[in-house]
Fold these 2 entries.
Entry 1:
Amino acid sequence: MRVLIVGGGKVGSHLASLLLADGYEVCVVENRSSVLARLYRELPTEAVMDGDGTRMSTLEQAGIRSSDVLVAVTGDDEVNLAVAMMGRFIFNVPRIIARVNNPRNAWLFTPEAGVDVALNQSDLLAKLIAEEMSLGDMMTLVRLRRGNWRL
Amino acid sequence: MHIIIVGCGRTGSLLARTLAERGHQVVVVDPNPDQFLRLGPNFRGRTITGLGFDRDVLLRAGIEHAQGVAAVTSDETANLLIAFIARRHFHVPNVVARLFEPERAALYQAIGVPVVTAAEWRVHRLEQLLCQPALNVVDTLGNGEVTVVELRVPAAWAGQPFSFLFIPEKVAPTVLIRGGSARIPAPDVTLEAGDIIRLSVATDALEDLRARLAQAGGMECAS
């Protein structure tokens, strides 16, 4: 299985390491030179690509056409959405996962915009914290449906 | 028409002023309120400070009943997103976006937004602002492949037949307007100076037509 990750920050690089350890084929697209230097230290060279992930030509070079999953995890919601739209409307990637940075933008991360799964980290974290404060003697065993349901 | 313009740079502010002067109800959105100074003291439209893809900002700008949205910020990714929101979430009938990377045209087409390249856009706007144009763009069809234009016949063309402007697959003159009344003339009808002709033009042939008209002295500014 081939996974294309746009955004090589903490989330992107950590995800890449996990997936590589599990035997996935991974490519991380990043264009900030300081971040690239770290990526080249942490990941195998063939798993890193220097380029602007909002450009179709970059995505094509990074092998989007043969990727099974596209993950957009930059720190910029506009970029994550633009990447998801390109992934769906131009390259027809089977599964697209995008990170929501600002909860105010969550309403835009819909299947119509090409996003199959939206991960709203601030919202998830805030809810977990609120839960830990109020429900001392209850424990979440598992989260279902993107964290909206709990057992 | 109620029109929302997102981005108050050179392009956005010129567009806003032009549309407001023509009596349209214009709302301009920009995150930097200093940019609104470009609109000048006589601007009659509204301004809203905020991000163009913020739901609350768009609702305040009246996007639910807007007839047109122009996404003309200097950030192409933002333009794409604004165009997408206007078209797909709020079903605004007329949405245009400023495009910098021609390779993205296919993406705009996929979300149902007609594409105007920055160069075409500027030429059209500048022409409208500089001159009472002898050649006026009336409509753009499909994804901009065909443009419908009107031109005023210059004196140098008087006596030519209506069909002399016809170029197969490029320029098709359709309607003759003389003294305010319009008709579809026979090909051999003789043109008079001051006639208005409406033509459908393949957009890539528009510059040639413009050049022909300029050569005949038809592009001089009025008054």
Entry 2:
Amino acid sequence: MPEVEHPTEELLSALFEDGLAPAEAEHLLAHLDACSICRQRIDLIEPALARYQRCRELIAPHLPQPPEPWQDMASAMDRVERARRTATIARTKRAVVRPAWVGAAAAAILVGAILFWPQSNAELRADTLLLKARSAPSRRSPLAQVRIRTANASFVRPAVLRSATAEESDMESIGLLFAAAGYDWGDPLSAAAYSAWRGRVAHRTQVSESGGQSTIRTVASGGALREVSLTLDAADLSPVTARFLFAPQNWVEIGPAPDAPADAVPVAPAGVAAPEAAPSPTVGRSVAERNVAEREILTWLAIDQLGAGAGEPIGVDVEADGRIVVTPYRLGERRESQLRAGLQGVERVTVISPQPAERQEDPPASTAGADPAIDASNSIASRAHLLSRLAERFPPETEAGLSAASRDRLRGMRARHARALEDEIDTLAKVLAQSRPLRLSPSEIPPDEAVPRALVDSAVAVNRMVTNLYLDKSAGEGAAWQRLGQELSRLKRLASRYAEEVRQ
Amino acid sequence: MTDGASPTAHAQEQVAALYSAVRDGVFRSLLALGLDSGSAQETTQDAFLRLYVALRDGVEIVDAKAWVYRVAHNAALDRLDRTVRESPYSAAIAETLASFARNPEQELMEKEWLEGFQDAMQNLSPQQRVCLELRGQGLQYWQIAEVMQVRTSTVGEFLRRGIKQLRRWNECRK
């Protein structure tokens, strides 16, 4: 073994006396890290270090102790794991262009207004939509024929094939693709075929709504059929189009044949009341409609008064006959009882209990989240969704038709949540600033910006950034942190604008 | 890693072991930096949780001990920017000196050292205090450099200046 060359005493002294050139200091300190003999030598050479060490020992009993018992790290890590799972689900959902609960109103027959869903996952929403689509009697004429398009072919065929006979080569080859993927080629544009395929493959789901249509996009984690998007009419949940992506890049689109009525006159099946005609925008709202809106406000107030914040996945459907159906997807028994009690004074409201397997435990009165920033940003996103829904369900013309009492209730609810939103944004900014300085810059919002919608987009963006920050600390560095500051500024401004509008 | 343990379980084991071993040291170094005990405890606990998240995400960490000290110190420095207060060290030194007065037999020399320490501490920069504290805790120079995110030679320079302060006071006392 080669003999170690120790630094001279002069060199050791120079380290703390006159200083050394950086390279020399690096070399010497590296040696000290590796050599216990020289570490002892330096303590002898520099008595101030030994004295310092003795003083450290002397004051140790007088140093303040931690004010609380040390956190149980095992439990804390478990909480982080739970938060990560929740965040991952939420992140998948947020990748959707538009959240599932947006824009599903406006239907004359069945108004599917899913409220308070920001914590829900797209799987639950998709399952709910498909279940309804499969079980609801179709209000329109079934399609006789569908058009099938691929990158290099387009043809029309019966919507439902009664035999396996393929009449054309294109149809045959496409049919083989479907067969290989285990997808029902006999009735491909149906919720049943889609559900059956989804049930067999490992997948992730996105749900979006736009223009009165709900699109469920399922991406398989393997197999020949990589992705299927089924678009349903939000009014009656009948399938409108389906788009299939087969490996490697073969796409197939199925939609109504050109001669099929674009919006067939609804035919009420036996036992189902014919829908009321949609009111003309130029005609005042009927008494019945106003009554529904007022009962809906009371329903929302009862949900709001659960005191659980805005994050509960509770569906509120307004049926064609004016009945309001409330589905508390995940409430525990105690809170469901509270909800029922709150709804007692509201006429024609039905509360559907969740399946026993889906029922959640009632949470304790106070639950600590894994991260205050995530908690705050989740709550902000939830509240922004709620405010957006209120704006969507009660536009000015609807609000104008309400009784004075209902208008006050609605405005009170909006104002309360607007204030809470502003407070939560301030809280989030403070929590974030504890980890590093956060610069909030003035943000201008165009006067014609649709504030409620922009509020949701901004809140979701902030929520995503905060979640990323929590899961990946490198996301909090430099530009990402600056972007978070900018988005939070914008969110704060939007919330302020919303609050101003409510006050007016 | 325990045979057959999942990455999650392994990360939890690693963090739990380190938490038991060095949390008091991290806490104390944050006191040396000037954080109050409540903030120091919160920051310490948070640093270990961050370590867990990083390990869980597969972040390659050369030295977990230095990493957790570094994260804690960064967070503490951010907090210090907004909460200027007397270092808990100063109060502890004063209390220790008061206890000396109640024990006349206490080594006179130690009392003098401590008085010198008290004066010197008031003139040390936070970096110098942290360097001395971490060295006192037995961290290697490269680890101190990692914690403070400086070159090892800079650690040497912080120490040199800190020692000069300590020495200057001793010389004045003589």
